[in-house]
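Homework-ish question, so no full write-ups if that breaks the rules, but can someone show me the predicted structure for this set?
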Amino acid sequence: MTTIVTDNCQKCRFTDCVTVCPVECFHFDDEMLYIDPDVCIDCSACIPECPVEAIFEVDDLPEDKEKWIAINAEKAAQLPVCEEQMDPLPGADERKTALGF
Amino acid sequence: MSELATENNPLLVAIVGSGPSGFYACEALLKSDLAVKVTMLERLPSPYGLVRSGVAPDHPKLKQAIQVYAKIAEDENFRLLANVTVGKDISVAELLDTHHFVIFANGAESDRKLGIPGEDLPGSHTATEFVGWYNGHPDYRETTFDLSHHTAVIIGQGNVAADVARILSKSVDELRHTDIAEHALDVLSESKIKEIHVVGRRGPAQVKFTPKELREFENLELCQTIIDPAELILNPESGAELEDKSNSGQRKIYQQLSKLADIQGPSKARSCQFTFLKSPSKLLGSERLERIEFERNALSGEALSQSARGTGDTFELNAGLLFRSIGYRGVAMPGLPFDNNKGLIPNIEGRIVENGEHLTGLYVTGWIKRGPTGIIGTNRADSVATVQSLMEDLKTLDAEIDKSGADGVCNLLLSRNVRYVSFEEWKKIDQSEIDRGQPKEKPREKFTYIREMLELI
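A: Not a homework solution, just the prediction itself:
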């Protein structure tokens, strides 16, 4: 079991989730955030924080998003930890509207 | 003397409480660009607050948050003084004499009451007592629970209620290899409880269980989960609530309840029934709890702001055991203001206030600041916010620079024969717990008496 960031985070990266992560398991690149499954403690605190509902528990992950399990693990291992809230990516608000939120 | 919060004259901050909110405040301070030294005070010899004594023993992954706190505690600018009760062994005024700032992160240790006749009958307990007892908290070591009854009722619709129900529902084999306290495992192994009822005042669209906690009721070894599908029929306002875009979390919870209601399994030795829109109105019994009178509730008001009201329609259930889990409450700290209605320390953005005035140097974070809501990580954002307030005030601080910090506190404690426990000493206790858990294939066997812990150091 772990928690997964999916494609809605791309080009948004609001990072509200990071402020409530008890274990600093979020990593980031210029696109989005990723969760390190070896560090995440499955507390789910991040899930309701995401303004674009990009984060899922593995058990709730829609079938077409299952590839994100491997992507999160792979990317998190290579990228720096996101320790605190960052500014959203440029255009994040437009992207959020486009996603229907 | 050099400027405050620089290397030769560090900012000295005392934090009262060593649970998540205390450690996240500590983390925020030590991560800042300023030179800061933190003195953390803890009432028990063991740190980590509710992560150690609240999180259920069968949720070991959540307890891994402790690894983060242990890492913070290794910082050279951190001192733990455990086994020290602020307000008794040392006063708030003395902490402020020795430190520039004091942050209270001492949580909500008491419970809200139901406020109904018979609440104090033997057999009627708080969830806090039961949780503390199975988690080996020294305060509840001598508390006894009579599990020889057929029926147990849990009042509440949050994760603590779910924890209590799950611990009563599970077989001893399902708990044996957790860090549950041995004395609790012994009593649970003799449990005669066959029926568990989890009763909430609001409807299935308003409950506060998380989907994950509910999922754990899908497949228990000895216990079948029961939800009457008729109870999941929603009034139009609740239906509208679940359709609301802002309410997707609640929709997931409702879907999980529906899934539990649909499970058709073989009958098992125990049952755990979730039931809604009922409030206990009387606890009845001559010598001890025998029966509970409930009143059926109805929701009124607009979608997303409905409240549950009694309908006057009552019924009785035979039950020898009741746990109320309707929210924690803070306890007043001598020397600080207290909001008796809300059960917390009055504050504005983490600054402790009395009659609208900020009490210079005094701050608050976590449950004693905002009330008992949210989970472990919620405290991280909350503590970062309190530390931000503190940092803003630093700019205008006209404080006496010469403070004695942790050493000053230690001198006072030594003069009063208070045996404080350092983090290094706690690590010895910690290792002993891990060692004595090993033969039983448990992650640890906790020490449940304070004297046992102190004998080790």
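Now go work out the reasoning yourself. Hint: The mean pLDDT of chain A is 95.
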